[in-house]
Write a structure and sequence with these properties.
The radius of gyration is 21 Å and the shape is globular. The relative contact order is 0.16. It has 198 residues and is α/β, with parallel strands linked by helices. A six-stranded parallel β-sheet has the order 3-2-1-4-5-6, with helices on both faces.
């Protein structure tokens, strides 16, 4: 059976951590503004996928389940999940792969995808050995805030100069309507009363 493949675009590799993923998501707004023809996919650890899914400019999130795999490294389900991840990673031939993780972990993920791999150069990256797995290296001042560094790397890889303040776009579902709880579910079995504000 043939596997459906997406058109090219950009793959961002930033599996963790929470704060840096939030900062790095500013890159997506830059890419969609400066290179609107490029769709953006993102590799993130399973626990951070709900955050990635809040960004309407990310076409597809690819879940990286390393923490779960470590708990049961010999389980059949673990190896099945790894094969599924590898297939998802190779489903698209990307115009550019941006490794924003700065570690060997991210570089190995990027190596498993199809496309030109971009990363920080040896003077800019947290783990210099990770540069062995990249094809294009970009000098970005390491003293800059990570959001600025991520934007600079993306701009260097895709041929534009980031400008203005970083921008994030989120789509957050509205909360469910406030309705009285079912009878007997309140404190001491009493149904709470819900009043509308005047």
């Amino acid at each position: 059976m043939s596997v459906a493949r997406d058109a090219g675009g950009v793959l961002i590799v930033r599996p963790s951590s929470l704060g840096d993923i939030v900062y790095a998501l500013a890159v997506v707004s830059d890419i969609r503004r400066e290179r609107p023809a490029f769709a953006v996919d993102w590799v993130a650890e399973q626990g951070f996928m709900p955050l990635i899914e809040l960004c309407p400019d990310v076409r597809r999130g690819i879940a990286f389940g390393l923490r779960g795999w470590r708990k049961s490294p010999l389980a059949t389900s673990t190896w099945r999940a790894i094969r599924t991840f590898a297939a998802d990673l190779r489903r698209t031939r990307y115009d550019a792969i941006l490794d924003l993780q700065e570690q060997v972990k991210g570089a190995l993920i990027a190596r498993g995808a199809r496309g030109t791999r971009h990363g920080f150069d040896r003077a800019s990256i947290r783990e210099p050995v990770a540069t062995w797995f990249h094809q294009e290296h970009h000098a970005v001042p390491p003293a800059q805030h990570f959001a600025a560094r991520a934007r600079a790397l993306a701009g260097a890889a895709l041929g534009y100069a980031p400008s203005g303040a970083p921008c994030w776009r989120w789509t957050v579902a509205p909360p469910p309507p406030c309705t009285p709880a079912s009878r007997g579910s309140g404190v001491n079995g009493r149904t709470p009363t819900v009043k509308e504000a005047p």
